[in-house]
Model the fold of this input.
Amino acid sequence: MTGQSDDASGRVGIIAAGGTGGHLFPAQALAQELGRRQWRVVLMSDERVNQYGAAFPCEEIIEIPSATLSPRAPVKAVVGVMKILAGVAKSYYKIGRLKPDFVIGFGGYPTMPPLLAARLRRVPTIMHEQNAVMGRVNRLLAKSVGAIASTFDNPRLLPPEAASKVAVTGNPVRDAVIDCAGQPYEAPEIGGAVNLVVFGGSQGARVFSDIVPAAVGALDELLKKRLRVTQQCRREDLERVRFRYETHGVEAELSTFFGDMPSRIAAAHLVICRSGASTLSELGVIGRPAIMVPLPHSLDNDQLYNAKAFAEAGGGWICEQDEFQPETFGPMLQNLLDDPDQLAAAADKARGFGTPDAVKRLADLVVAQGEGPVATDPATEDSGRKKEEDDNNDAAEDGEDLK
Done:
């Protein structure tokens, strides 16, 4: 167990999340807050969690079978359904053993089996939607969960029947991000260093390795000498990106993953990034300006809508990927880095986009959902009624979850 209190109460919360940073980071933030409130936390996710969830603050990580369902590939869809059913069966067994007070899903297909199993067990369920466009799994399950926490007031594609369940909490950010939230933005000084941070989500973005070094090479010589680049790259791109920065005479630190990314963002004068919900929430809480290149093939174009919300708040600028070319991006970068007042104004607006207390709002919601009457397993309701009346702290029931 990592980061949980030694004298935690018997209360248990299950967090279900897809195995990438976009899902795990807000889930991690909630787990940290629940630990401070003396809750025991268990994480359910898919096999990817072994790469990104090693430091997740929980007492147990349970790998759940799951798969993405695609109607365009019928054979794969059938196999996917079988995996999801296997995931539901495993989740049902684990939930019966753990007797959680609630199960919350953070989106992605790996959250489907635990949420479905929790409903069968009559355990209160909550889902969190990070994006401006509701994800497909969340849309499928929106009508069956007890509550929906959302980053945005009215996420696109939210089923109308589920609108009354929405509570706007914001998107939780990790403790490491909160620790950086109070650092003021210091605009680049004339002749001083300029810190540029480039990253493309937890798995990196090859297009940034292709375009950003070339665009940096087109900057004027004085700016290149002042530039300090921190860039996340895929492993196979590291050497060629390093060579290109060296060729341009630009100081650059490259890695496949930066464990201290929040502090690096806090030190940045400008960030170049994708526009996943967790990325923009962290930028907003820390308060740093960004050029956003939305992932062009994201489901339902959620990254574009996220980026539009951040840009409309004044925190940054959008460069769609079909326009993201060295000959156009280079001048854009030069103009922004030559205008410290514009960068400082955007940093101030970005800070207004963030919700530093989102994790407390979300924790309040899930705790309230979990503090209902005792949940009953439909298979043992009659035979176990007497025992449940004697011990009403085993699990919780939420009447909304049965509607």
Observations:
- The chain has two domains: 12-173+356-402, 177-353.
- The longest strand covers residues 40-45.
